Amino acid sequence: MGVSTQTGQVASAGLRPVLTLREKLGYGSGDLGFNFLFDMGQLYLLKFFTDALGINPAIAGTIFLVAKIWDAFADVAVGTWVDNRTKLGKRGKYRSFIFYATIPLALLLIASFQVPDFSLTGRTVWAFLIYILFGTVYSIANIPYGALVPAMTRNLQERSVLSSLRQGGGTLGLLISTVVFWPIVNAFDDQAQGYTVAVTVFAIAGTVMIYVMYHNVQERFISSPHGVQNTAPRVPLSKQYRMLFANRPLMGLCLANLAIFSAFNVRIAVQVYFTEYNLGNTWALSFIGLFAIAWVFPGVAVTPWLTRRIGKRQTYILGCAIWFVADFLAFFVVHDTLSLVILSSFTFFGSALPNSLNWAMVSDTVEYGELKSGIRSEALTYSAFTWFRKLSQAIAGFVPGVVLALVAYAPNVAQQSEQALFGIRALMFLYPMVMAVFAIVAIWFVYKLSDERCVEIQQELHVRHTQQEAGDDTGSADLTGTLVTEK
């Protein structure tokens, strides 16, 4: 039976579309705002640390490594906190976290790009502490945002649309950050002042867009192990964590994201070095944003069509394959701005396919986990997923710093050595190639959750929920967390 037919059966079983266009666009605007805040660190903070604060590249990379590992555990702690809330206020289970954390997050972003009048050691400690705080508050705001999807709708196609719109909003944030930030900095003779003005502009814009999202989304399905719609006994944390590790599709998706997210973040962190030193054209960074990153939008637009034709898993793999081929060619042929923009267009188009599907696929793993364990933990599942993404960010911050130190990168000089130029090129193209292959392996051999199986899971859960609501426990799962083995 085809995916579209089965999806129709799920809709007739009570999982009909419920989202308005305003709500869909509102959700997408949230990732536009979060990316205005997040991309500042991923794009420019390493260069700010090495060139403005004067921190050794290896030490700067270590700051990223430690901070992101901390963030990874903060994600799990926040997910546990959110899922185990027993009292929900008027702002809901997830929206309340977003409401209170956004403004402190914006202020910490601005603080991250300050040059305090300290010694080098003092500036290093300052950079470390502020970045740790920023990552922690980001977790408090962003984990609930990701967990909103299964709370907003149970319709599979609507989840795919939300996932694509989130990717579209995030990509628009990345594009604007790439095109606009550096010209603002360069408009000031005092580079430190330029950083402050630029980051303040993006902090304000990000805050506004996040609150636009907050006011336009609705939580409809609040079903946690002990939430407002469930009177079952509190599920021990040990069983909730055991459920996560037993969720094979979730682990496969996490491993794939460990690869593609580290590849993506290494590339966007290194491209500011590549354009300045390998191409000798700092304006090339804006051209990448304007012309190459813009190709993510066609990728986002075509993703729902591809998933209807070949399924989410195959679309994910196709995107990684396109990414691999583009970077393979780029490693050998890119020596000017035009060739970089052309091949980067294919890279970003390919990356849009898996990145557009991540949030829909993690929602599918929530329901897989509920079917197999009887535990529904949106925030904890999402936090486990983002734990691997934060680990990939740790790798993405650490690897460039260490490689730059090994190849003897020298900040604020007109010309780098041949060794340094090769190291920058390898980070830009070779590292993402290897990670794209790793992601393909993880999705093909570990994830293994087809769209047809997702539809079956939706139907089985619908029957189970209907029986529970009617007081009929026949065939229902033990909500104390007993794991069910996949057939």
TrEMBL record:
- Which regions form coiled coils? none
Comp. bias intervals (Polar residues): 477-487
Region listing for Disordered, in residue ranges: 466-487
Q: Give the record's keywords alphabetically.
A: Membrane, Transmembrane, Transmembrane helix
Signal peptide positions (record): none
**Which CDD domains does its entry note?**
MFS_MelB_like
SUPFAM superfamilies for this protein: MFS general substrate transporter
InterPro entries per UniProt: MFS_2, MFS_trans_sf, Na/Gal_symport
Transmembrane residue ranges: 97-116, 128-148, 169-188, 194-214, 250-270, 282-303, 315-334, 340-362, 391-410, 422-447
Protein name according to UniProt: MFS transporter
Instruction: Tell me which species this is from.
Output: Cryobacterium breve
